[in-house]
Amino acid sequence: MKFVVLSSSRGTTFQAVLDRIAEGSLTATCKGLVTDRPDRGCIEKAKRAGLPYSVVETREDEDREMYDKRLQKAIFELFGQDEDEPKVLAALGWMFIFSPWFIQQWKSRIVNVHPALLPRYGGKGMYGSHVHEAVLAAAEKESGITIHLVDEGVDTGTILEQKNCSINPGDTLETLQEKVQELEKRWYPKVLQRIENGELILP
Questions:
Q1: Could you give all domains of the chain from N- to C-terminal order, each with its CATH number?
Q2: Which of 7, 48, 86, 172 has an alpha carbon 20 to 30 Å from 166's alpha carbon atom?
Q3: Which tens digit of pLDDT belongs to each residue from 126-152?
Q4: What is the pTM of this model?
C-alpha cells in the first residue's frame, strides 16, 4: 500500500508514522506530504525523512471543489505512475472539510484521526483544541481518539479504531491534548499497518 499524507499542522502524528516506517513496524510506503502553507511544521518532518512535499495554498477566489482539484493534482504527482498500486490518503491534522467531489474520488480511501470518541464531540467546528475544551467543559471522565474513514458528512465515516484515555480532576487542555496525541501517535501507524496487512479491509 502506498499513501500520501495530508497535514496542515505541526506533524506530530506524521512524525510517529515516519518513525514506524524507519524502524520497520510499518511497511506501507509514504510517497510524500501535501500541506496548505509553507510555514507548517509538518514540512520539516518530510524534509528530514527525505520525502517530497507539495504546498497547495488556498485562494480567496475559489470554492472548496476548485481547491480540491488542485489538491488532487498535487497528490497524483506524488503518487506517480503506479496506477495499480492500492492508494490511501492519510489525513493527519488536515483542517479542511473536503468537497463532495473529492470524497467521491477517494471513496473509502481517506483515513482520518479525530481527537475524541465519535460520534460525540464531532462535526463542524469540532477540531483541535475546540474538541478538548468541549470535553473538559462537559466534565467527561474519559476521552480518546477515533480513526475513521472520511465520507460526505463531518466525522461520520466508518470507524476503524477507537482508543480511550482517562480524564483526571486536575487535567487541563494541555494535559488532555498530550494524552490524546500519545494515542494518535501509537495507534494511527498500527491502523495503517492493519490495512497494509489486509486485516482491515476498506469498503
A1: 2-197 (3.40.50.170)
A2: 7
A3: 999 999 999 999 999 999 999 999 999
A4: 0.95
